[in-house]
Amino acid sequence: MIYKKLLAFQKLGITIKKGEKNPHFKNTYANLNEVLDKVKAPLNSLGIVIIQAPTKEGLLTTLVDTETEEKELSQIQGFLPFVDMANPQKIGSNLTYYRRYALVTMLGLEDADDDGNVASGGKVEVINEEYTL
Fold first, then answer.
1. Beta-sheet pairing, 20-22 with 27-29
2. Residue-level pLDDT at 128
């Protein structure tokens, strides 16, 4: 069951290092590569795969337990809607932020939202009747 595996993941106490600087906002943040570097191998060792697929409305992030057959017990999903659908460049630049924010939120990682000024306006909608973020 994916929730037991996510609990095991959270018990690992993984922290995300804020190693990047945003000169425009004069702050630091953890980039997407840092997040993926820290979470992908531990999740994969637990049998969980990360799928992040952009749709025409936003970013759909799915965490799938590859060892559980029952769909309702094997995955959780989070959705971040695109804010400005008319601006492909803005969607492209925000996609990296969205991918990082979705993973940090869904996995319960510690990371302060101090560089979200560019991508502000979106909200996380978790597609699961038991849990809401």
1. antiparallel
2. 42
3-state secondary structure of 115: coil
* Dihedral of the alpha carbons of 9, 96, 113, 79, in degrees to the nearest 10: -70
Domain ranges of the chain: 2-126
Q: What is the mean pLDDT of residues 102-120?
A: 68
Asked whether the beta carbons of 40 and 51 are under 8 A apart, the reply is: no
What is the tally of helices (H) and strands (E) in the chain? Answer: 4, 6
Q: Is 79 helix (H, G, I), strand (E, B) or coil?
A: strand
Length of the chain: 133
Structure tokens at 112: 């302060």
pTM above 0.85, yes or no: no
At residue 4, does pLDDT exceed 90? yes
Quote the CA–CA distance of 77 and 60 in Å, as a whole number: 7
Angle between helices 2-10 and 32-45 (to 10 degrees): 120
Enumerate residues 6+ apart whose C-beta is below 8 A from 75: 2, 62, 63, 64, 65
Write out pLDDT tens, residues 22-41: 777 777 777 898 899 999 99
